Amino acid sequence: MFKSKIFNILFMIFLFFLVPNVVSAANIETQTTTLDLTEHATEDKLADKGWKWDNENKILTLRNANFDVKDDNNSNPCIKLKKSDNIKIIFEGINTLKSQKKSVIYANGGMGGSLTFEGKANAILNLEITEISGNRWR
Fold it and tell me: How far apart are CA 133 and CA 67, in angstroms?
């Protein structure tokens, strides 16, 4: 009986800490257009869109971000970066990047630069490229 009460109390504490994380991830909007950071100023959209761009340090943070980019040409990536920059992408939580028929992350511009990925503890990055058939609009 005593062990059962302890288990129930510990379970309730676990749920108490779990629920705010689930609710906050559920409030993130799915982004359906390309995030073009080639000429983008510093901006913090972590709370509503799941991304934050630090233009000075060239750091993109994705926290529970959900991209599902579709267009008529089946060609836009989820994120567009400058190839000449040294960019770090930090992942927190569960992130999904979906694009059609092209790269999920695309870099254009001059030569040089680097792209570094850093995942925080228990972070997940799902990448998906889908090819849509010609019968898509029927």
Answer: 21
The residues spanned by each domain of the chain are 28-130
Residue type, 42: T
Rounded Cα gap, residues 26 and 64, in angstroms: 9
pLDDT bracket for residue 85 (50, 70, 90)? confident
With a cut of 50, say whether residue 92 has pLDDT above it. Answer: yes
Task: Work out the average pLDDT over 30-49.
Answer: 92
For 105, phi and psi rounded to 5 degrees? -120, 125
pTM score above 0.90: no
Tell me if 108 sits within 8 A of 136, measured CB to CB.
no
Q: How far apart are the C-alpha atoms of 70 and 128, rounded to whole Å?
A: 12
Question: Angle at CA 33, nearest 5°, toward 68 and 46?
Answer: 80
Q: Which helix (H) or strand (E) holds 63?
A: strand 59-63
